[in-house]
Amino acid sequence: MEPELHGLAPSYARVSLAIVTSGREANLLGNIHGGEIMKLADSTAGAVAARHSGGPAVTAAMDEMAFLEPVHVGDIVRTFSQVNWAGRSSMEIGVRVETQPWNDPSTTSLHVASAYFVFVAVDGAGRPRQIPGLVPETPDELRRMREAEIRRAHRLAKKQEIDSARRLD
After folding, report:
1. Which of 135, 75, 36 is closest to 44 using CA atoms?
2. Rounded to whole angstroms, how far apart are CA atoms 55 and 58?
3. CATH architecture label of 3-168
4. How many CB atoms lie within 10 A of CB 141?
5. What are the residue ranges spanned by the domains of the chain?
6. pTM above 0.85, yes or no
7. Which residues contact 49 (CB under 8 A, 6 or more apart)?
8. What own/partner pairs with CB < 8 Å and gap ≥ 24 does 100-107 have?
9. What one-character DSSP code corresponds to residue 108?
10. Which residue, 10, 121, 137, 161, could crosslink 53 as a Cys pair with Cβ 3.0–4.6 Å?
11. How does pLDDT run across 36-75, given as a tens digit for each residue?
């Protein structure tokens, strides 16, 4: 069975990364700078995209990143990421970011951010290349795929509307 023809389950490329934050990443308020969290989320999503596509993939867009809670110096930050939707050469990767104090394993992990990235698989010349489809296996994976299709439709509609408005100028 060729994965290019039959697709892969989201679990195939799922990735989790973790870091312990330090004062180097702090902003003027003493919390971890949002850009540091974005970078970790993008790195995690990039690993998922490369795994699913079987080679290089580049960030094409960050569709959304919601910061829900501050991240503190000394927190253990964990990212959880998987493919939510896959097209011919692009894919949406969802990332959940959680924290836990470094010195208290009894503390429940706190959901601090979520993000959606669009990646495009590229060949050696940097041109888009075909990727395997996505075959959701659980109700949650199916829900994620449906929601990703809605976000994609909104991205495409927004682009079309902006292009139309620019032609009027």
Report:
1. 36
2. 10
3. Roll (3.10)
4. 18
5. 3-168
6. yes
7. 13, 57, 83, 91, 93, 117, 119, 121
8. 100/75, 100/76, 101/72, 101/74, 101/75, 101/76, 102/20, 102/74, 102/75, 102/76, 103/74
9. P
10. 121
11. 999 999 999 999 999 999 999 999 999 899 999 999 999 9
Report the percent of the chain where pLDDT is more than 90. 92
Q: Answer whether 162's CB lies under 8 Å from 35's CB.
A: no
How far apart, in Å, do the first and last CA atoms of the chain sit?
Answer: 51
55 exposure class (CB count in 10 Å sphere: 0-12, 13-18, 19+)? middle
Cα 1 from chain centroid? Answer: 28
Nearest one of 108, 113, 103 to 70, comparing CA atoms? 113
> Any residues with CB less than 8 A from the CB of 90 and at least 6 apart, and which?
60, 118, 119, 120, 121, 128, 131
User: Per-residue confidence at 1, pLDDT binned at 50, 70, 90?
Assistant: very low
Half-sphere exposure of residue 27: CA atoms within 13 angstroms, side-chain side? 11
Q: How far is CA 27 from CA 59, 69, 102, 110, 159, in A?
A: 25, 14, 19, 20, 34
d(CA 31, CA 73): 6
Q: For residue 39, what are the contacts with CB-CB under 8 A and spacing of at least 6?
A: none
